[in-house]
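for the recovery benchmark. tokens below, seq after
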């Protein structure tokens, strides 16, 4: 697999990342990217398929799609997978190689992929979010959380906008982890925030909606988080 840094050092900057208390089975690869230096030739040079809908997309979308798949190749290779090719299904979600699960997330200049063997993990979801401003948080609160959840967020020592950002991200991680099983859309209200534990950097949720084939039905979900200067990162993994 050609290294992007050999193609153009100004586009790709690998970034080290540690998931707190993550099982050793989870492999993470992250990078910063500069869309101004993206080239469509990266797809063919790195052996990554570019679907027709991505070819028609704006440069930012093509770039984030590419970098996510490239990081997935890196993570799968590090995990020992013999097949590191990632295709896309009709839901525009990654199709992971047999016996592997994974999740990809992007922000404006950051991308992250996590993978694991399905023998070690039953579900896996990750999300990164740039910190909301107070104005942004006020504008989107009602779309993300209920009045009861808002009270929990208000009581967090993280501050309202940062805690809301993490709650939003955690619900995205839950969605990404469960969608491969339930195969249907569910909104923010389907995951209800129960508590925020700043000591171990975790948010706790319950699923309030009946979802088909939900492997975590009836269980409390612990979504771990990482605080970075520009963003928050959340992830949900559940050992079999």
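predicted aa per position
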């Amino acid at each position: 697999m050609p290294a992007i840094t050999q193609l153009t050092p100004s586009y790709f900057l690998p970034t080290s990342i540690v998931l707190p208390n993550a099982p050793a089975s989870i492999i993470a690869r992250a990078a910063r990217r500069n869309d101004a230096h993206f080239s469509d030739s990266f797809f063919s040079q790195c052996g990554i398929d570019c679907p027709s809908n991505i070819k028609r997309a704006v440069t930012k979308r093509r770039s984030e799609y590419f970098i996510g798949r490239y990081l997935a190749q890196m993570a799968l290779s590090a995990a020992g997978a013999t097949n590191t090719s990632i295709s896309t299904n009709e839901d525009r979600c990654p199709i992971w190689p047999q016996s592997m699960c994974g999740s990809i997330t992007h922000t404006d200049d950051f991308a992250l992929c996590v993978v694991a063997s399905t023998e070690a993990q039953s579900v896996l979801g990750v999300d990164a979010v740039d910190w909301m401003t107070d104005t942004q948080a006020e504008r989107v609160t009602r779309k993300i959380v209920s009045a009861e959840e808002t009270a929990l967020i208000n009581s967090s020592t993280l501050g309202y906008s940062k805690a809301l950002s993490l709650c939003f991200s955690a619900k995205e991680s839950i969605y990404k982890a469960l969608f491969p099983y339930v195969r249907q859309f569910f909104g923010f209200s389907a995951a209800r925030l129960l508590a925020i534990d700043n000591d171990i950097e975790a948010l706790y949720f319950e699923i309030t909606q009946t979802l088909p084939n939900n492997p975590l039905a009836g269980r409390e979900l612990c979504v771990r988080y990482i605080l970075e200067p520009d963003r928050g990162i959340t992830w949900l993994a559940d050992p079999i």
